[in-house]
Amino acid sequence: MSRADSPPSRRAFLGATGAVAATGLTAGCESPASKPNRPPSPASTPQQVSPTGRHQAGITLPQPAQPNLLAVVADVGDAVAVGPLLAELGQAVHTLTAGTDPRLLGLPPGDLTVTIGVGPRLVRRADPSLPGAADLPRFSRERIAPQARGGDLLMQICASDPLLLSVVATALLEQGGHRLRERWRQSGRRGPNIPVDKDISAPRNLLGFVDGIMGPHTAAEHRRHLWLAGPAPVVGGTIAVVRRMELDLPRFTALSVADQEAVFGRRRATGVPLSGGTAAGDPNLGAKTPDGRYLVPADAHVRRANPNVVGVGLMLRRSYSTDEPTPGLLFISFQNDLRTFTHTLARMDDSDALLRFTTTTAGATFLILPGFNQQRPLGSKMFH
């Protein structure tokens, strides 16, 4: 795509006002003959999600998460002024999500969100003491090519309309021009959400299990575990971990349902821990059978990754299933301390039964920048 004749104007930026963040309901199908040329009703169109505010969209909003995602990881040239680049990208996000950007090619934005983060190298350029300056360590069961490890910029694009993903990615990369060099990208999708508790739902993954049950769900939990509270340049941001994993579906499928449940420590149909209770409740890791065996096996995922056992906070998972280049999972977690992830995976690396069916092929961590608006451009508190 050629560069637009001029970047989106200040007038367009100021005019792009988001509606209350929400997800749309899908209307029932009608016969084209019975309602010829009838435009979609408001209920059938996902509602717009405002890109501005204290936090970027695409993390806790909308809820539930959109069914389609494209993650694009890029590098920034050494001589590039990062502040102006981020400000331009933020302005492009504003016009794209408002539907006023001609690079949308007439597609309605619906519930489009774009979430932008900067990698450790750029964080260190701004201030090596800031959260997000540490690289993601290496772990076992990785087969990551150099091109798929790390990166300077994350653009997480989510929408109900899958056609938007590549169009928006093209517009953002075009906005960056020669200043950006793409490293890798991955698309994914989420299945229907399964209710697990009041106001809490989660999708199934390709292994058939409900994925992402445990996490910070309330505003108080978000403040404690998700959002960065300081120092000033990062307030309202968070730390993201992105890892693409291949799943060994044939070997997992060959297991009996009982053995599959032992891998996870949960019932496949309901997500309830093998120790009983509810799907959203904490598993009773001390519960045993009459003959002394743990109801939740010692190597079960729910035990090895349990935050109480690991001694870390909660992570908000917003993962998507993938089928290219191979069936797998694009694991995405948000937390206000990278150690929440690294300590958890270090404990899983020791003897988590689930990891025997995974191979990580890409991985990176990013500081998700605080929210922005016209008076406070994206990244302006970090990159002057």
Written overview of the protein:
With 384 residues, the chain is α+β, with helices and mostly antiparallel strands. Helices cover 23% and strands 20% of the residues. It has ten helices and eleven strands. The chain has helices spanning 10-15, 82-98, 120-126, 163-176, 219-226, 249-253, 257-264, 301-304, 307-310, 338-351; strands at residues 68-76, 113-118, 153-159, 180-189, 193-197, 200-203, 238-247, 316-317, 320-322, 328-335, 358-368. Strands 1, 2, 3, 4, 7, 8, 9, 10 and 11 form a nine-stranded antiparallel β-sheet that branches. A two-stranded antiparallel ribbon has the order 5-6. A hairpin with a 2-residue loop joins strand 5 and strand 6 (200-203). Helix 2 (82-98) packs antiparallel against helix 4. The longest helix is centred in the first third of the chain and has 17 residues, at 82-98.
Summarize the structure.
This protein has helices at 10-15, 82-98, 120-126, 163-176, 219-226, 249-253, 257-264, 301-304, 307-310, 338-351; strands at 68-76, 113-118, 153-159, 180-189, 193-197, 200-203, 238-247, 316-317, 320-322, 328-335, 358-368. It has 384 residues and is α+β, with helices and mostly antiparallel strands. Helix 2 runs antiparallel to helix 4 (163-176).
Primary descriptors:
384 residues, alpha+beta, nine-stranded antiparallel beta sheet, 10 helices, 11 strands, globular, disordered N terminus
Q: Topology of this protein?
A:
Layout: H1 10-15, E1 68-76, H2 82-98, E2 113-118, H3 120-126, E3 153-159, H4 163-176, E4 180-189, E5 193-197, E6 200-203, H5 219-226, E7 238-247, H6 249-253, H7 257-264, H8 301-304, H9 307-310, E8 316-317, E9 320-322, E10 328-335, H10 338-351, E11 358-368
Antiparallel strand pairs: 1-3, 1-4, 2-3, 2-11, 5-6, 7-10, 7-11, 8-10, 9-10
